[in-house]
Every structure is written in structure tokens, then in C-alpha cells.
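Exercise: predict the fold of this chain.
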Amino acid sequence: MKYLSSTIRYTSKGVPVIENAAIEKLAERLLCEFNPSLLNAVGEIPIVDILKYIKEKDNLVINYDHMESVNNVKILGRINISQRLICFDEDLANDNQKRTIFRFTIAHEIGHWILHSEKPLILDRTQKILRELVDTENSIMPKKTFITSRDWVEHHANVFAAALLMPSKLYKQALVNIQYNDLGIRNRLGIIYLDDNDYNRKDYNNTISQLSVTFGVSFTSAKIRLETLGLLCDERRKPTHISKYV
């Protein structure tokens, strides 16, 4: 199944050059294809069911195995494009306390399949085609700067995962609902204003917590989504650098 436009440009390493907005549209298209009504009701996206849908539609193999650690960092999942194989750590899948991590990992691997399955990837210095992408707790952590091709590949998958689990339309509506119904806010709905006031910080943390529960994601994922969608107005005082006093 071809997901990317024929006009997409690729780097010499096989990495698609694609904007975040285009990745968001791909995630929304998948949701509409799976079940259009999902975009009409705030709540958890049934990511396991979407994985099963992708499996059947694209003839994928989904396995659950015990995965070891690499440099003391746990492997969460891996994908072999040529074999059409996606594997998840069975301990992660069965640990309810890590449910949000498992949900994000599923969405992340779906992102790899949709965004990185059309061209061979070359992500190391050997110039050999990469057989599989192995995702650890570290590799799926968001970064602020992207230097290597691998950085960009993981960034793509993270953007896709966030958009799939927290569709922008639903996320914004959930925020308004929380502000109106739980916080009693009536003005400037849909934006969180954060400053150094203790009450505002408490409301901010409570709002993020409720958003994370609503969408079945971690506090960190909900917080990053808020920021990337431009829904946070952060007016906290920045600490003055010591050089100002020298």
C-alpha cells in the first residue's frame, strides 16, 4: 500500500523530506479510513484495533516477543520493512502500568510503516540498507534538534504517533471541555496561559493530567502535544543568567 505522495522528495539515505503538517494529514487520513466517527468524539483512539486493521490491509505480520536491552536500554519494538514484520516487547504489552508507553509504541511503529516503507533506508556509516528499525526507550524520546538521518526517521514516527493518538481537532476540543467544565473558565478558551502563579501552575498540571487520561497517553506526550499545537502561552519568568550579574 502506497501512503506517501509521488511528489515526495527523498534524501540520499532514503528518508522522506516531509513536513509535520503533511504527517498530521496522513494520520488523520488513516483514522478516517479506519472509522470516520472517531474524529467526532473525544476519547481514546483504539490503537490496537488500528494495528489489526493495518495488519490485514497491508498483509503484515505482528509478533510479540521477549526483547532484550541494548546498552541497558529496553527495546520496545522493532520493524522489518522487507519482511513486513512488526514486533513488540511482550512484557511491555502485558504490563498495564506501562500501557501508555505500549500505546505510543504501537502508533510509533505504524508511523514507521507508513512513512518509511517505500524506500530502502541507509542510516549508518556502512552504507548498507537497514534491515530493521529497532526502537528503544531512548529512540522514541523526542529531541529538539535533528542531526542524523535516524534522528529524522524517529521524529517522523513520533509526530505521526502523536497525531494518531491525539488528533488535533479532538485534542483542542478536550482542552476546551476541561477548561469550561472543570476549571470554570469562560474566556479565551482553547489556550493555556501559564505564569509563575501557583494556581495557574496547578491548573496547568491538572489539565495535562486530564488530557493524558482522556487520550490514554503519558503526561509527557500530552504536554508535548499541547506545545506543538501552539496551545500554550508560557509567560513564566525565565531565570536570569549569571553573566548578567558579572
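Check your answer against the key: DSSP finds eight helices and nine strands in the chain.
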